C-alpha cells in the first residue's frame, strides 16, 4: 500500500516527494522557487519514468518522514508558530537541517534568527534568556524550557551555524563534566546524545578558563576589597566601622565561594551569575537570621564595585569563543 502524508498531499500537486516511504504530493514550482537544490534535481530528472504516483512523477529523497513533513510545512505555512523550547526542538532542528541541505536561504536565516534569541551573541540577550528560564518562584530551570545545549552544539556543527556555539558551550560548561560526558538522553525518544570527542575537550578546557576567570575576579575585585576614596565610612574613628565595607566584601566573598561549591544554588560553575550575584547580594533583602545587613556596602563602594562587575562580565563574554576553541569572524 502506498503511504500518503495526510496533510501535505495537494489535489493539484504535480510532483511526489518520497521520503521515508511516504508520499508528499506537492508543487514543483514552489520547491523550485525556494530551493536551488530542488531546481537542480528537477532539471536533471527523467520525467518519463514509469510508476508515477497519482499520475505525477516521484522524486525519492533521503530524509525521514518527520523531517520532510516539518520542512514542507515550514515552506508552505511559515515558521511564525515555532517556539525555541524543548517541545518544538525536533521541528526547529528538522527545518534548519533541511533548509540548509536544500539551500532554502530565507527559511534557514529565519530559524537561525529565532535560535539566536535563546543562544545569543550578546550579553544583554543572554540576560533576557536567563530571566525567561527562571520560574515565577525565582527558581532557575533552563532544562525545563530550553533544549539541552548538547543538542544545540551538535545541530550548530551539522548546519554550520557557529554563532550559536559560544553561548551553548557556556551553558553546558555549567553542568557537571561527568553528566556531560555521559550524554543527554531525550525524554521522548530515549535517544542518547553525546558531544563529539573534540567538542568535549573544548568544553572542558573552556570550563577551566571560566573557573580561573572567576577565581581571578574574586581575588582582584572582591576579597578584602579596599573601600573607594569616597567611602562614607572612611573617616570613622572606630576602626571596625572604618573597615565596614571591606568586611562586607569579605562576607560576600565567603558567600560566593559557598556558591561555587554548589552548596547554595547548585549553579556551581556559572561565573556570569556568580559575579552579578556578588553585586545583587548587597541590595537583596535576605532573612536577618542568614546574614542580615552584613553584606551591605556604602553607596560609593557599591557603585565602584558595580562598574567592576560590568567590566568583568563583558570581558568574560568576549572571551567565550577563545576559551571554547571557536574561531568566529567577529564576536560578540
Ligand atoms: Zn564604602
From TrEMBL:
PROSITE patterns, alphabetized: BTB
Pfam assignment, any one: BTB
Domain BTB: 13-84
InterPro entries: BTB/POZ_dom, SKP1/BTB/POZ_sf
Protein name: BTB domain-containing protein
Amino acid at each position: 500500500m502506498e503511504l500518503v502524508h495526510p496533510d501535505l498531499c495537494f489535489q493539484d500537486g504535480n510532483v511526489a516527494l518520497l521520503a521515508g516511504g511516504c508520499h508528499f504530493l506537492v508543487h514543483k514550482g514552489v520547491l523550485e522557487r525556494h530551493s536551488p537544490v530542488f531546481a537542480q534535481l528537477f532539471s536533471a530528472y527523467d520525467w518519463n519514468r514509469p510508476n508515477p504516483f497519482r499520475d505525477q512523477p516521484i522524486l525519492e529523497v533521503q530524509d525521514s518522514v518527520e523531517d520532510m513533513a516539518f520542512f514542507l510545512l515550514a515552506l508552505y505555512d511559515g515558521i511564525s508558530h515555532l517556539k525555541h523550547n524543548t517541545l518544538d526542538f525536533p521541528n526547529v532542528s528538522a527545518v534548519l537541517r533541511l533548509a540548509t541541505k536544500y539551500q532554502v536561504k530565507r527559511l534557514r536565516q529565519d530559524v537561525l534568527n529565532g535560535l539566536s534569541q535563546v543562544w545569543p551573541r550578546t550579553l544583554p540577550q543572554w540576560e533576557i534568556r536567563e530571566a525567561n528560564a527562571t520560574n515565577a518562584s525565582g527558581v532557575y530551570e533552563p532544562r525545563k524550557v530550553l533544549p539541552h545545549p548538547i543538542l544545540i552544539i551538535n545541530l550548530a556543527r551539522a548546519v554550520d551555524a557557529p554563532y550559536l556555539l559560544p553561548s551553548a558551550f557556556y551553558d553546558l560548561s555549567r553542568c557537571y563534566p561527568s553528566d556531560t560526558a555521559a550524554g543527554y538522553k531525550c525524554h521522548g525518544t530515549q535517544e542518547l546524545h553525546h558531544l563529539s570527542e573534540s567538542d568535549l575537550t573544548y568544553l572542558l578546557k573552556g570550563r577551566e578558563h571560566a573557573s580561573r576567570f572567576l577565581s581571578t575576579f574574586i581575588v582582584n575585585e572582591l576579597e578584602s576589597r579596599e573601600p573607594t576614596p569616597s567611602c562614607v565610612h572612611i573617616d570613622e574613628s572606630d576602626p571596625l566601622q572604618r573597615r565596614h565595607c571591606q568586611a562586607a566584601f569579605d562576607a560576600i566573598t565567603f558567600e560566593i565561594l559557598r556558591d561555587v561549591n554548589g552548596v547554595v544554588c547548585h549553579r556551581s560553575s556559572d561565573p556570569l551569575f556568580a559575579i552579578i550575584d556578588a553585586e545583587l547580594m548587597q541590595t537583596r533583602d535576605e532573612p536577618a537570621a542568614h546574614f542580615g545587613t552584613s553584606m551591605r556596602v556604602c553607596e560609593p563602594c557599591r557603585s565602584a564595585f558595580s562598574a567592576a562587575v560590568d567590566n568583568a562580565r563583558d570581558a568574560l563574554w568576549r572571551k567565550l569563543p577563545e576559551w571554547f576553541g571557536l574561531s568566529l569572524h567577529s564576536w560578540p
